[in-house]
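Researcher: Please predict.
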Amino acid sequence: MFTKKSITGLTQKEWLELRKTGIGGSDAGAVCGLNPYASPMAVFQDKTSGAVEDQDNEAMRQGRDLEEYVARRFAEATGLKVHRSNCMYRSVEHPWMIADVDRLVTGEDAGLECKTASAYSADKWKDGEIPAHYLIQCYHYMAVTGRRAWYIAVAILGKEFKYAKVEWEDGIIQDLIRIEDAFWNGHIVPGIMPDPDGSKICDEVLEHYFHAVRKGSEIPLVGFDDQLRRREELKRLIDQMEREKAQIDQRIKLYMKDSESAANERYRITWAPVSTAQLDTKLLKEEEPEIYREYLKTTSTRRFTVSAA
């Protein structure tokens, strides 16, 4: 069972505020740790922050603009009719689960998720594969709406159009509900930030939350000795592997000499000249100090260092 709230006429700010009231389909993959572009910590920041931030970009804009095209191509390819619902769905049993779906399939107990992808991402859709976070998104929509299937269609720009049908899987959906329940009631409701996962996104969230520093402050370092020893081991291993990788590259360069490329049935290597233009900031500062100061941009970040006491 679910409730519906019309989103027709909502401003962008009102829609973003509504999204903060639950876990949506695009959040589900991140909460499960399956989204390479988001993390549970980023979802926590989005849901608990008082600010309403529209983190739009060109890729997202193109995805929205091309949604109608993908839906139309899907209808042409399958002979099915689809329509907009213009509603935000909310599970009655699990009210932290919400869904703003792309399309519903007319006359069938199913919905449709529309995606676009660049040609560089085509391999993620090969042989009928669906990226894991998109697959979880479909299961999330089924869990909220109760529909027994969800189609996903993708236009791989300049290359091809694909679609697939995802059927209801009770075990997966129950696991998803359990994970989202634990995240919402274990982190969002009490305001407890989830553990970091090592991603750059987590670094950005931590910088956002703790960018201000109490100058001169220091606290005891308790409970991290084992982790810091492991960090030292990892750093040594990484340095060793980086040197080994560089040595392999150097051997290949010595073999290639002045050849621009080398190839066999498995690998292709290029060692080609590349020209780059860089601004000589030191010279600009010396010869045109006023212009240098005019275009100088100062940013503030926190630098993390580990050293022996």
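Model: Residues 2-209 form a domain with the Lambda Exonuclease; Chain A fold (CATH 3.90.320.10).
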